[in-house]
Amino acid sequence: MQFAPPFDGAAGVHMATDDGAVDLEQIVARPAKRAKHTQDLCKSGIASEAVAGRATALVTQAAPVVVPGSSNIESGAVAGRATVDVTQAAPVVLSCVTTEATLRSAIAEAFAEALAPMCAQLRGLDTRVANMEAQLTQVQLEVEARFDGMIARLDGVGARLDGVNTRLGGIDSRLAGLHQQETILQAQRANQRREEPHEVLQPVPNQRGDAPSQLPHGTTVAQLEALSADAVKACLNHYALSHAGRLEELRMRLRRQLGVRRLALL
Predict the structure, then answer these.
(1) Minimal CA–CA distance to 55: which of 63, 43, 47, 45?
(2) Which family would the database say this protein is a member of (predicted)?
(3) CA distance 5 to 2
(4) Residue 11 has what pLDDT?
(5) Are 94 and 38 contacting, i.e. CB atoms less than 8 angstroms apart?
(6) 102-131: buried (b, 16+ CB within 10 Å) or exposed (e) per residue?
(7) Which of 34, 42, 76, 208 is the most exposed place for a label (fewest CB within 10 A)?
(8) Is 49 helix (H, G, I), strand (E, B) or coil?
């Protein structure tokens, strides 16, 4: 009890055995083979049902399927529809599962098996990336803490420098005050020197009776300071002749007023 030749392979059905035929008795007798060939029939687009020992198969192929008869099967082909009379004691019950759902399930299982190692690797990478992010966050916190400490130290150094600048400003102010006081004292001393009364040196004639023409009448010590060294020396020589006693007193006054340098010229 066989079909020969098998169905066209273009329709997606491979039901042939080694000798190129399909044994229906083996399909009916063995549940496993029956289930497998049922799935093959579903893949080929054939829907089947069993009613009172009669199996009606709707063939969706482009050309009519002609099933040659045998001793137990009577068959005929009418416009793509094949009616097969099954003479076994038990009817052949063929159940068809939706082709699209079956294919989707098989594809999903295949993709799941193929992508399982990759998904595991990706989960491992996610874990590593999370660990690296945690480490980077810790490093960032440590760096920020160090920078905050450095900024605090720099602020302390800046405060110290401000204190030093303040002290230097106070020292500069004190020095400026001292310089101003010194300038004021020097001006006061100069004014006091100008306001001090000076003794008027009266010219005295010498022993020979010559009138001294070197100094005018009423010459003061301040005027003597403005004279040249020769004039001062001539004046002293003139008065040395007449006033030997007053010469020493005049020398002392000149030492105080003219200084040692101008006295060395005498």
Answers:
(1) 47
(2) Belongs to the UPF0612 family.
(3) 9
(4) 38
(5) yes
(6) eeeeeeeeeeeeeeeeeeeeeeeeeeeeee
(7) 208
(8) strand
Which residues are paired to 58 by β-bridges?
A: 47, 81
Instruction: Quote the pLDDT of residue 189.
Output: 81
Name the β-bridge partners of 47: 58
Residue 258 tokens read as 């003219």
Residue 222 near residue 254, CB atoms below 8 Å: no
pLDDT of 253: 73
**Residue among 203, 260, 226, 204 at smallest CA distance from 251:** 260
By three-state DSSP, how is residue 2 classified?
A: strand
Contact 59, 77 (CB under 8 A): no
Sign of the CA dihedral 112, 118, 119, 120? positive
Closest CA to 57 of 70, 44, 69, 68: 44
* Sign, CA torsion 235/240/246/251: positive
Angle in degrees, CA 136, 141, 145, rounded to 5: 145
What's 11's DSSP letter?
Answer: G
Q: Which helix (H) or strand (E) holds 98?
A: none
Other Cβ atoms closer than 10 A to 88: 13
In three-state form (DSSP H/G/I as H, E/B as E, the rest C), the secondary structure along 31-98 is HHHHHHHHHHHHHCCCEEEEECCEEEEECCCCCCCCCCCCCCCEEEEECCEEEEECCCCCCCCCCCCC
Enumerate the β-bridge partners of residue 50.
Answer: 55
| pLDDT less than 50: residues of the chain | 1-35, 37-82, 84-97, 200-201, 203-213, 263
Return the pLDDT at 223: 64
